[in-house]
């Protein structure tokens, strides 16, 4: 998808695994944002963000000792005049933080660090992404525009992205409202969190806890995805049931729900020839900025119960009914005919209580 590129620069973090870190190659000037090669590179990175194997975790900046200097640098850049110097200065702060964090990780490796200020779908973002060279190519000396074709766009190694609009929304919200607002996201390899973590900590990222929002969205949006596809719509009710069972099990086990496992559930309904494409589309949809389901999240017990039950609390009586047990046919456990609610198959214990009352 096309983007409006405002500022872009690529620095180099010089670090080989198990070797001492070297001085970073920090550029003094931005790259030409209107250059087609540069635009294609940034669009390629943006397109990878949130896709399968590059799923994003959502969050906010740290507030304590782990915050570092970048969040304040971003705040200063956001409020400053938009120009090359202010952009470069913000990226220099980020590079210093990356250097300090990577230096303490013997197994960490460096790479090219792309910074971009861009607009997509009328939303402005500040992107930081680590990219590597394609196998078989070696970029030496100054990184030139013509060298960008040698950047490997098959996957993101590490990345962080700040949504300007949500950042402002968070700043204007009260403490309760802030719990459901995540203005930044980050991508980090799941198979090597210890090594990859330096990138995330360098930017002062902290995973948020939008458990209620994610718990609801993962079911609602997965069902919507199925309903929008003619071959999948007939399976949306069964998918919903399986997702509720999955979330309930995860909540009971006090384990996080994972997009990779939700994808596996959805794949049961995909045809073999479309499975990979549909799975990638579903994960990208759920993990997008618009929907905001992170790669992992804690299941919100209260929200899950609200989604699966009808709860009524009046002055004279209270009812909590499982939605799956309510129907408009006489054989339903809770039969509703528009005026009356009939309870079939009363539990023995409840019948004993009623017999005792009327006995």
UniProtKB/TrEMBL annotation:
It comes from the Bacteria. Pfam families: NA37. Its main location: cytoplasm. Keywords: Cytoplasm. It is found in: Cytoplasm, Nucleoid. One of its GO terms (molecular function) is single-stranded RNA binding. GO terms for cellular component: bacterial nucleoid. Belongs to the YejK family. This is Nucleoid-associated protein NdpA. It comes from Pseudoalteromonas luteoviolacea DSM 6061. The lineage of its organism: Bacteria, Pseudomonadati, Pseudomonadota, Gammaproteobacteria, Alteromonadales.
């Amino acid at each position: 998808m096309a983007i409006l590129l405002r500022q872009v620069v690529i620095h180099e973090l010089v670090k080989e695994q198990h070797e001492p870190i070297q001085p970073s190659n920090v550029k003094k000037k931005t790259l030409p944002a209107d250059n087609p090669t540069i635009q294609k590179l940034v669009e390629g990175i943006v397109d990878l963000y949130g896709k399968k194997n590059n799923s994003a975790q959502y969050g906010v900046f740290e507030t304590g000792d782990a915050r570092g200097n970048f969040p304040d640098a971003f705040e200063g850049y956001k409020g400053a005049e938009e120009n090359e110097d202010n952009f470069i200065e913000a990226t220099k702060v980020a590079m210093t933080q990356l250097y300090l964090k990577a230096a303490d990780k013997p197994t960490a490796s460096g790479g090219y660090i792309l910074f971009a200020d861009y607009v997509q779908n009328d939303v402005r973002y500040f992107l930081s992404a680590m990219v590597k060279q394609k196998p078989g190519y070696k970029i030496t000396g100054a990184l030139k525009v013509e060298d960008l074709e040698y950047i490997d766009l098959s996957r993101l190694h590490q990345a962080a992205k700040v949504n300007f609009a949500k950042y402002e929304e968070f700043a204007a919200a009260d403490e309760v409202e802030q719990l459901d607002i995540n203005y930044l996201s980050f991508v980090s390899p799941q198979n090597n969190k210890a090594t990859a973590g330096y990138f995330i900590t360098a930017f002062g990222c902290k995973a948020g806890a939008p458990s209620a929002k994610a718990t609801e969205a993962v079911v609602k949006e997965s069902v919507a995805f199925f309903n929008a596809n003619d071959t999948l719509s007939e399976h949306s009710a069964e998918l919903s049931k399986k997702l509720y069972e999955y979330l309930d099990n995860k909540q009971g086990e006090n384990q996080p729900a994972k997009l990779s496992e939700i994808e596996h559930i959805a794949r049961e309904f995909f045809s073999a020839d479309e499975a990979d494409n549909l799975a990638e589309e579903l994960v990208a949809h759920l993990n997008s900025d618009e929907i905001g389901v992170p790669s992992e999240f804690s299941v919100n017990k209260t929200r899950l119960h609200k989604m699966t039950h009808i709860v009524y609390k009046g002055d004279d009586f209270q009812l909590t009914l499982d939605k799956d047990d309510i129907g408009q046919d006489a054989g339903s456990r809770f039969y509703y005919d528009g005026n009356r609610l009939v309870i079939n198959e009363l539990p023995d214990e409840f019948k004993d209580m009623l017999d005792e009352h009327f006995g």
